[in-house]
Automatic annotation (TrEMBL):
Domain CRM intervals: 1-96
GO molecular function: RNA binding
Lineage: Bacteria, Bacillati, Bacillota, Bacilli, Bacillales
Gene3D superfamilies: YhbY-like (3.30.110.60)
Name this polypeptide is given: Ribosome assembly RNA-binding protein YhbY
Keyword field: RNA-binding
PROSITE patterns linked to this entry: CRM (PS51295)
Pfam family, one: CRS1_YhbY
Record carries keyword RNA-binding: yes
Recorded superkingdom: Bacteria
InterPro entries recorded: RNA-binding_CRM (IPR001890), RNA-binding_domain (IPR051925), RNA-binding_YhbY (IPR017924), YhbY-like_sf (IPR035920)
Key word RNA-binding present: yes
């Protein structure tokens, strides 16, 4: 689990990122989970945008993504979810 200090640090890092995934009407599927896992391994920190036409609420989607990818939810702001997972191979972010 991330501490408050680590979450603040990650939020400041994520501020400049653009969402690279979008969850739409069909919700979360296995293909999306696999792609997000790969992206987390490469980047460690990423944003997922939840579109207006998505039928599930963003908290449910964030929990599904975090559970299935092993990532931590850094924050949910507006329709954007910020996820963090430490990379096994390409560790870039040094947590405080």
């Amino acid at each position: 689990m991330l501490t408050g200090k680590q979450k603040r640090f990650l939020r400041s890092k994520a501020h400049h990122l653009d969402p690279i995934f979008q969850v739409g009407k069909s919700g979360v599927n296995q293909n999306m989970i696999k792609q997000i896992e790969d992206a987390l391994e490469a980047r460690e920190l990423l944003k997922v945008s939840v579109l207006q036409n998505c039928e599930e609420n963003k908290e449910t989607i964030a929990e599904q993504l975090a559970e299935n990818t092993g990532a931590e939810i850094v924050q949910i702001i507006g329709n954007t979810i910020v996820l963090y997972k430490e990379s096994k191979e390409k560790k870039r972010i040094e947590l405080p």
